[in-house]
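Reminder to self: tokens first, then the designed residues, so the page reads top to bottom the way the pipeline ran.
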């Protein structure tokens, strides 16, 4: 199993940020299997509904948020959907969050048939975890290609 710990810092938002709907990152979907997020009590996490509206995910002290990722959506043949989300820091304070991403080992094959889906009903072709993550990273960071480190 692979895990990645990702601490994230969110600057205090300014009035112009809210007016222009500017956020720390574009609203993502996690592309791994599962993400656990230790939420800060100040809030700011929003989830996009299927209709495209944004709803608050209010913090509940002592709990974790669990986001399904694209790889789980693919593996479950779209039974468990990946969650589009964003963070808006509406406080005048810095905001910190800690995400932990979980995946099987890179060579693991992800195939909906593994979960009992008939081969004829599979919406996604089998893919290795490593190939899926590399593909998503290449798309997410294409704007940095050729710019060095």
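Designed residues (149 positions):
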């Amino acid at each position: 199993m692979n895990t990645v710990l990702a601490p994230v810092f969110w600057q205090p938002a300014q009035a112009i940020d809210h007016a222009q709907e500017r956020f720390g990152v574009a609203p993502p979907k996690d592309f791994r299997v599962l993400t656990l997020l230790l939420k800060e009590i100040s809030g700011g996490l929003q989830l996009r509904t299927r209709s495209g509206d944004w709803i608050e995910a209010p913090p509940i002290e002592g709990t974790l948020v669990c986001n399904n990722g694209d790889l789980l959506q693919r593996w479950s043949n779209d039974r468990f959907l990946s969650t589009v989300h964003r963070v808006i820091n509406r406080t005048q304070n810095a905001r910190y969050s800690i995400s932990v991403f979980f995946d099987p080992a890179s060579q693991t094959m992800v195939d909906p048939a593994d979960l009992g889906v008939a081969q004829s009903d599979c919406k996604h072709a089998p893919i290795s975890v490593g190939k899926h993550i590399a593909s998503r990273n290449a798309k997410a960071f294409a704007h940095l290609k050729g710019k060095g480190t």
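The helical segments are 15-19, 70-75, 129-140.
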